[in-house]
TrEMBL record, chain A:
<keyword id="KW-0171">Cobalt transport</keyword>
<keyword id="KW-0812">Transmembrane</keyword>
<feature type="compositionally biased region" description="Basic and acidic residues">
    <location>
        <begin position="98"/>
        <end position="110"/>
    </location>
</feature>
<feature type="region of interest" description="Disordered">
    <location>
        <begin position="98"/>
        <end position="119"/>
    </location>
</feature>
<keyword id="KW-1003">Cell membrane</keyword>
<comment type="function">
    <text>Part of the energy-coupling factor (ECF) transporter complex CbiMNOQ involved in cobalt import.</text>
</comment>
<keyword id="KW-0406">Ion transport</keyword>
<keyword id="KW-0813">Transport</keyword>
<keyword id="KW-0472">Membrane</keyword>
TrEMBL record, chain B:
<feature type="transmembrane region" description="Helical">
    <location>
        <begin position="133"/>
        <end position="151"/>
    </location>
</feature>
<comment type="subunit">
    <text>Forms an energy-coupling factor (ECF) transporter complex composed of an ATP-binding protein (A component, CbiO), a transmembrane protein (T component, CbiQ) and 2 possible substrate-capture proteins (S components, CbiM and CbiN) of unknown stoichimetry.</text>
</comment>
<dbReference type="InterPro" id="IPR018024">
    <property type="entry name" value="CbiM"/>
</dbReference>
<protein>
    <recommendedName>
        <fullName>Cobalt transport protein CbiM</fullName>
    </recommendedName>
</protein>
<comment type="function">
    <text>Part of the energy-coupling factor (ECF) transporter complex CbiMNOQ involved in cobalt import.</text>
</comment>
<keyword id="KW-1003">Cell membrane</keyword>
<dbReference type="GO" id="GO:0015087">
    <property type="term" value="F:cobalt ion transmembrane transporter activity"/>
</dbReference>
<feature type="transmembrane region" description="Helical">
    <location>
        <begin position="206"/>
        <end position="230"/>
    </location>
</feature>
<keyword id="KW-0169">Cobalamin biosynthesis</keyword>
Length: 119, 255
């Protein structure tokens, strides 16, 4: 494996470890709902800090369930990942095409037309 | 995982729990800033976003070839702000992904890309909100990118290796976003006894602990993407001034 690839994989591994460690070590066990963002209880919270406060606006659209919400979050991540993958795939393809064109140009020697433009 | 965990005493609801409910994963929830604050943050953010739209259109007009990389930077923010990761405090939060775009295209452009991400989440995911959009844009799309960019520029001036500055910039951008959010919350909901500074201290210290591991993750992921970019888009990075311009035969062809 190339050194570059190895470093990239190590970076990914470190990120995964950082995400898994809190779970593996049970750092959320002292909570009622470990590793949850408790949106639903939001109203009580501000009442504790400021008893007079009432939220004055509610979301126009709310995902009907936690499943739908996670589906939408997954869609967001997938959309982003798709665009990133497209970008890197396109770049890689272009680079390979250029290298091939360059190699072909060298094979044909100097007399022939210069390396064709990038695709 | 332990399915049931014991409840630790009632009544004494710590500010930590309170914070978690107001601001479950970083963005301030819909309707949870008083109108005056919501409007003020909106007014503060608007010029940055307008300026950002202008520099974004200028960038696209002058360098149409950078549209793809712009899309990739926006996509990176999309992915990272959808990743809710567990943290050492036992709650979840997510990174912001704004450091990368700030380094590549300067912070004004990131103000636009960040706003798009926040709008998407506010409209479709009921995460964040329209009334709190101004405040959330200010923390995630303005303060974070500028802080990260400043760190990047400063460290580059001292000839720190590129990947170290990239890591630091992403780390600082992420952390700064959360610090600004705690300032916003402390301003809106000061502690009854110790006032603004008391609330800020508590909010800030909680945020810091939850967010530091995530900021590290964000730093590592940003370094990863920057390494891939340095392999695949050297010419582009040189044009944007991220990589030193090394006129070579390869780059000349690659353009």
């Amino acid at each position: 494996m190339k050194r570059n690839t190895r470093i990239n994989l190590l970076l990914l591994l470190a990120v995964a470890a950082l995400a898994v460690l809190p779970l593996a070590l049970g750092l959320g066990d002292h909570k009622k709902e470990p590793f949850a963002g408790a949106d639903a209880e939001a109203e009580t919270a501000v009442t504790e800090l400021d008893p007079d406060y009432r939220p004055w606006f509610s979301p126009l659209y709310e995902p009907p369930s936690g499943e739908i919400e996670s589906a939408l979050f997954a869609a967001q991540a997938a959309l982003g990942a798709g665009v990133l993958a497209y970008y890197f795939g396109l770049r890689r393809g272009r680079r390979q095409g250029e290298e091939r064109a360059l190699a072909r140009g060298e094979d044909e020697g100097r007399g022939s037309s210069p390396a064709p433009g990038s695709g | 995982m332990v399915p049931v965990s014991q409840e630790t005493g009632q009544g004494a609801s710590s500010i930590h729990e309170v914070l978690e409910r107001v601001c479950p994963v970083m963005h301030i929830a819909e309707g949870f800033l008083p109108p005056a604050h919501a409007i003020a943050w909106g007014v503060a953010s608007a010029p940055f976003v307008v300026h950002g739209v202008r520099s974004l259109t200028r960038e696209v007009r002058e360098h149409p070839e950078s549209t793809l990389l712009l899309g990739a930077s926006g996509a990176f923010t999309f992915v990272l702000s959808a990743l809710k990761l567990p943290s050492v405090t036992g709650s979840c939060s997510h990174p912001t992904g704004t450091g990368l775009g700030a380094i590549l295209f300067r912070p004004p452009v990131m103000a636009v890309l960040g706003t798009i991400t926040l709008l998407f989440q506010a409209l479709l995911l009921a995460h964040g909100g329209l009334t709190t959009l101004g405040a959330n844009v200010f923390s995630m799309a303005i303060a974070g990118p500028w802080a990260g960019y400043a760190v990047h520029k400063l460290l580059r001036r001292w000839d720190v290796p590129l990947m170290v500055t990239v890591f630091s910039a992403a780390f600082v951008a992420d952390l700064c976003t959360y610090c600004v959010t705690s300032v916003q919350l402390a301003l809106a909901f000061p502690d009854p006894h110790s006032g603004f500074w008391g609330a800020l201290g508590t909010f800030g210290s909680i945020f810091a602990v939850t967010q530091i591991p995530l900021a590290v993750s964000e730093g590592l992921l940003t370094v990863l993407v920057m390494r891939l970019l340095a392999q695949s888009s050297r010419g582009e990075l040189a044009r944007l001034g991220v990589l030193p311009d090394r006129p070579g035969k390869r780059e000349a062809v690659a353009r």
